[in-house]
Amino acid sequence: MDRAPIHHRFGRRILMIGFGCIGQGVLPLLLRHIEMRPEQVRVLSRRGDPQGMAHAQGVRCDQVELRPDNLRSELLPRLAPGDLVLNLSVNVSSTALIALCAEVGALYLDTCIEPWDGGYTDSRLSAAQRSNYALREEALALHGCKPGPTALLTHGANPGLVSYFVKQALLHIARDTATPAGPPVGREAWAGLAQRLGVRVIHIAERDWQHRAAGHPARHPGEFVNTWSVEGFVDEACHQPAELGWGTHERHLPADAHHHDAGCRASVYLSRPGAATRVRSWTPLAGPQHAFLVTHAEAISIADHLTLGDPLRPSFRPTVHYAYRPCDDAVLSLQEVAAREWRFPAEGRVLKDDIDGSGIDELGVLLMGHAKGAYWYGSRLSTAQARQLCPHNSATSLQVTAAVMAGAVWVMRHPQLGIVEPDDLPHDEMLDLARPYLGDMLGVYTDWTPIVDRPWLFDEDIDREDPWQFKNFRVT
Amino acid sequence: MDRAPIHHRFGRRILMIGFGCIGQGVLPLLLRHIEMRPEQVRVLSRRGDPQGMAHAQGVRCDQVELRPDNLRSELLPRLAPGDLVLNLSVNVSSTALIALCAEVGALYLDTCIEPWDGGYTDSRLSAAQRSNYALREEALALHGCKPGPTALLTHGANPGLVSYFVKQALLHIARDTATPAGPPVGREAWAGLAQRLGVRVIHIAERDWQHRAAGHPARHPGEFVNTWSVEGFVDEACHQPAELGWGTHERHLPADAHHHDAGCRASVYLSRPGAATRVRSWTPLAGPQHAFLVTHAEAISIADHLTLGDPLRPSFRPTVHYAYRPCDDAVLSLQEVAAREWRFPAEGRVLKDDIDGSGIDELGVLLMGHAKGAYWYGSRLSTAQARQLCPHNSATSLQVTAAVMAGAVWVMRHPQLGIVEPDDLPHDEMLDLARPYLGDMLGVYTDWTPIVDRPWLFDEDIDREDPWQFKNFRVT
């Protein structure tokens, strides 16, 4: 970019909580696209700023670990009405922060609805209670304080951008099948479009092709290596149950699936973690791949927003879930955690500067069941591109930080909307903000289905009448 | 070794079929320990001797691909009574070769009972027909021609050496639990010892820690990287059904398990490949690990030989199976083959000279259920050690080639025993022959069981009364 556009002029302060790979990566983007002085940003981090990254940009970082007992005392002196809290941490309760922001009159944005430390591994809680469904319902229930300062939930790449990818993909499919499409206004219009197009299943279909550059030490046994937060990934993949928005076309509820007995009812959870739940999926570079059905907020929010009719007896809803193939080192790391019966790994390493530049993160949505079969739409970004676009980023982090920056701009522009999700925001405006950082935006049709080439040498329980049944995707 | 001992003086010829990583690795061992001239060895290989390895040792290699229609015409002119056929190939029928050897009066040894090319992927055959059980029954049925030239089946590392490891481990456990042990003579005595010790489950528990040395190209998508034959591994792991010797203590026959309706009845097969069948297992360096239950001849032969009573209603038999954790690259390669619904990979690479010397192959047997819990006994060999012990070998190949050399010596010493398996041979004599090439022979007790640390965050179907039930090992 020759000259970065200023998207907003902000006179208040940003309080950034957490300074891991996302916090570090988003800071230059905020200072680039939001007109404000570095002194208006303050970082709170349990590890401080050991590499001096915040300091080098003129931003002060206080080493603070937020807990239930110090949340008010640490935050109240640092917050004023109109300030923005960017929650980019793990282990700090989103609902506690949102409530405090509402009390103060501060704006809020996170990339994941987090519980307090230990909330994912409290074995006194049921799987249902540790689900993203429960966390989302709890956060949405804070709506009681609306109208209030805007709190934008789960606005990273996924959850976050992918909700916009879904809408854009629906419009592309409508265009390519000559289906009248609006433009749709409101959730019922979008759900109606999905229904008319015949969309039955939506995967958030990601393949992380990034890998260690030559010369950097190999993963050693017991070490969890990932391209983003090890703690965040282990919690969602190994400690929370697998969750998926449950489509109205599904005829075979899995034996390990459970409905919730309150709330939006858009999703079910499985009595097992996502790292133990594999599905057949597809990305343009991988072709068919096995991916992990890791729980994510977007699986629930997209399914909820695309539901038509009574939530208890909906007339339409697609099946929606994350189908994630992490980088090779993370796949091998997950296997070790599984063999240790899901206990946290002894050590973690987040690859960033040691990623080979050629590595790509393919992050998109795969819409299936319509007249043209399946359509993948998303971002193909290499780490070399990411580094050129913004310092302190890999492909994985930039897809997230671009969304955080875009979300922060939007929240500043719309400060009094209460609690909102990506699915409530205008997809075109949000994509315009993020797109410069997403590398190649690609739309590809494929005739792949999860029953292609099956069965071969072994009998398999396949529903041949409808390839898009979840039982056909699941790897057993 | 200062001076390699000569184990046998051989006046006839060796015809080696196949010249992959095992053929290449065993040639120097044969010429070292068997008194014979290189001209007495002839190699037949479908790929010839492109690197000149045979030629450099004075051994002639003919480029020949053996098929059903040219087997007699290619072999009869090259074979005379008393010669030894070393079948180290894939895709050449073991039973066809054994029958031909019996006709000629030639000795025979293989490391795997192979069908003709395509036998593993002929979808007209049932899983039962493609099983190692069926291949073994077919080979043992050739016993009709006994007394005849000795044909030693499945004599590599595993199958092969591990049958001796099991007997040695039984003696160690007897010693350490002050159980009178004989020495046992004959299969009933060994089975009786296993029963008295309370052994319920035996894993052939292997962890391949070898990895590419720095500077060698990374695995690329679509490439299957392994430390031994890619074709051999893909067939047994992806095309044959998972198979296991089925113990008399088992109370829960899996829904996907099937008994055979003829033969020794020692094993069952699952209606899925081993690469889709994971089990909890343990090795000294790995600790708890998830491994693949890949079918192997030893799972059936060891279980068969340790059976007491009527095969249809046995009074004792342990559960026996392979629990293999291949090298990291092979694990990732297997996932790709799975995603392609088990089709052969586009490309294969066998790591040998490009293995980092520090990499170790941990190959042992894990005997479980006795008074001291679980006992792992086996070989811990690094590739650096292997290279020092014998050129053209990695840790994985040397464990096999040492066994092939030992088996060749034994066959030459006992040329008129008809068809035999490792379980029929004297374990102490065979271990003495192979041990110089096995690195550190290690025996380790552990209190690990497959239900340690379970359940934690999710409900699990566990048999708490008997930790050694197969259902507790299986990863679902």
List keywords for this structure.
homodimer, 476 residues, alpha/beta, 29% helix
Your description of this structure?
The structure is a homodimer of 476-residue chains. With 476 residues, chain A is an alpha/beta fold. Chain A is built from 14 helices and 22 strands. A seven-stranded parallel β-sheet of chain A has the order 5-4-2-6-7-8-20, sandwiched between helices. In chain A, a hairpin with a 7-residue loop joins strand 12 and strand 13. In chain A, helix 1 packs across helix 12. The first copy, chain A, is globular. The mean pLDDT of chain A is 96. Chains A and B meet through strand 13, strand 15 and helix 10 of A and strand 13, strand 15 and helix 10 of B.
> What is the strand content of chain A?
15-25%
Helix fraction of chain A by DSSP (H/I, runs of at least 4) = 25-40%
Number of helices of chain A: 14
Mean pLDDT of chain A: 96
Which descriptor suits the 3D outline of chain A? globular
Biggest sheet descriptor of chain A: 7 strands, parallel
**Order of neighbouring strands in the sheet with most strands of chain A:** 5-4-2-6-7-8-20
Largest binding interface between chains: A-B, 41 and 41 residues
What oligomeric state do these chains adopt?
Answer: homodimer
Number of strands of chain A: 22
